[in-house]
Amino acid sequence: MPGGLLVRILSALVLSLFGAMLGFSSTAIAQEPAPDQAVFVFAGRYVDAYIEQSLTPFSANYEDNFVLGGGYQQFVLEPLPALRLGAEIGMALRGGTSISGEVWAGPVLRYDGFRLGENLRVSPSLTVGLSAVTSPIGVEAERAQRRNGDPTLLFFMAPEISVSTLDNPDTELFYRLQHRSGAWGTLGGMADGANAQVIGLRHRF
After folding, report:
1. CA dist list (Å): 158 to 31, 116, 125, 131, 161
2. Could you say which DSSP state residue 29 is in?
3. Residue 104 and residue 147: Cα distance in Å, rounded?
C-alpha cells in the first residue's frame, strides 16, 4: 500500500472514531463528570506465540523484536459507577530484525472500582479498534507469508491491568498485551498477527 494512501486511511480512521465518540456523547456530557484524559508510554517485546499463549507475562517465548509506543485517551461517558467509556489513539515504533511503524485507534472501556488493601487501586481495561503498520516484522511477517495475507490494516485489541495508589491516583503503572489480528481472515486474509507484552506508565489529567 502506498505511503500516502496509508496516511489518508489512518487520518480518516482517527477523525471518524473521535468524531463519532464525541458526537455521541455531546448531549450527555452535561450530566456526566468532566472528561478524563490521559497520556501514556510503554515498552515491551513481541511474543512468538498466538494470543492465548501470550496473555501471561514473563511466561512466553519472546522474539528478537521490541516495541516502544505511547498514546492518548479521553473518557467521555460513565454509564455505571467507576465504569468509563472513551477513545484511545496511539503510535509505536516496532524494531529488532527490521523497523516498522504502527498507528491504532478505537474505543476503550475501563473499570476503576477495584481496591487492593487500603491504598491500591487496580483498574482493568480493554481497548479494541483498528491498527495499521508500515510493514510486518517477526512472526507477523512469517504468518502473512504463509497465508499470502496483507497485515497492513488489522483489528487491534489491548487488554490491560493498571495499578495506582489512592494517594496519587493520577499516575499509573500498567501491563497490557498489544494484539493485532485479522479475526479469522476478515481483514487482510490474516488470523493472528502480532502480540507484544508491554509495561508502561500513564498520567491522567
Report:
1. 29, 23, 8, 11, 10
2. G
3. 23
